[in-house]
Every structure is written in structure tokens, then in C-alpha cells.
Amino acid sequence: MATQRRGCLPLLALLLVTGGAFVAIKFYGGKFIDRYQRPWAYSTTEPLLVGKWRGRFNDPDGVNKTIEVQIDLPETDEERLERASRKRRRRTSNKRAFGGIAVVTSRLGREDYEVHGSVDRDEDHQFSLEFSTVDGKFSITPNFYVNDTAPGNRWAGDQMNLTLRFAWHRPDGSTFSSSADPRFDRVAAITLTRITP
Questions:
Q1: 108 CB contacts (<8 Å, ≥6 apart)?
Q2: pTM of structure
Q3: Regarding beta strands 97-106 and 109-119, do their DSSP bridges make them parallel or antiparallel, or are they unpaired?
Q4: What is the largest CA-CA distance in the chain?
Q5: d(CA 182, CA 19)
Q6: Nearest in space to 39 (alpha carbons), one of 100, 112, 109, 95
Q7: Composition of the chain by helix, strand, coil, percent to 5
Q8: Highest mean pLDDT range out of 17-21, 32-36, 147-151?
Q9: CB atoms closer than 10 angstroms to residue 51
Q10: Exposure of 9 by Cβ count < 10 A (0-12 exposed, 13-18 middle, 19+ buried)?
Q11: How is residue 72 annotated by DSSP?
């Protein structure tokens, strides 16, 4: 009986080592592949889209505002390790998508946003961004809130060029627009610079 138990221990140890090696290969292999599939997020030699950016703009009412955008890694090491440890494979996620947060400040107060974006399929220095308020709350009303960006956004090195589009929100949070008022067609072309830690 004792001999039989001793015979199981090496087999159990072999299974644990094999399982650990498999997880390590999936983890580091995924990181290696992402450097080539998503260089805008994981390159070790080039500047990244991921990071913190800051710029200034005037909204359609002429209010001077500062925007800070933080673009997060599509997948952290913790998330990657958890995925590598799973037995079942999930469907492949959109390799061009990313998320983050943004904060706009002005004399009116602070606007908090979640951002979701995607890099262009053929040119990862072009991208789109959509803004949504955190929990759907509009802390300053009435006000022009950032809604999304027009096509043609670009980033290179430590500079990002965006064209912001806006939505007017009433005190009850509902949107309003009028074709007779030119403010509702205004956009803000801005340049953001990288905030270095």
C-alpha cells in the first residue's frame, strides 16, 4: 500500500510540473505574440498608444476645458495569467479594441467618462474613441458633453490629434439638438500630449 502511494507521488509531481509549464507557455507566448499583433499596446521598442494624455479645448459654448485621457492595456498580466490558467478557451476578443477613462475639467466643474476605442485595421496609428459618462450620470447640466470623435484621429510618439464631437445635455440628462443653432454642429480639433509618469 505504501509502495503504491509512493508510486503516485512522482506521477502527481509530473502532472503539476507539466500543467505549470503549459500555463507559462500560454502566458509568455501570448505576451510575445501581442508585441507583434498589438504593438500600440505592448511594444518594448516603440512609443505606445497606451498611457496618459492631456490637452485643452473650447466646447461649443466657448468654455475652455482641459481633458486627460488614460488608455489602459487591453489585457493586464493578471488577466492574461487567469486566461492562461483556464481549461476552456474563450472566443478571441477584438485585438484592436481598448478602453480607459477620461476626465474633463473647467470652471463649470468635473466631467468623468469611460472611453472605448479601436485602432484601425490597417494603420494602428489611427483610431476611434467613444465617450460615455460613468454610470450614465451628468454632473454638470446643462452642458456640452464629449460624445465621440470624428474619423481621422492619429497618434505618433508623444502627440495625439483628435476631433471631439459633443452632445448637449439638459438638467434631466436628456439630449437636445437644434439645426437652427450652429453650436450643435461645432467640433473641437485638439492636440493631446503624453503625460510622462
A1: 63, 140, 143
A2: 0.79
A3: antiparallel
A4: 90
A5: 63
A6: 95
A7: 30, 40, 30
A8: 147-151
A9: 20
A10: exposed
A11: P
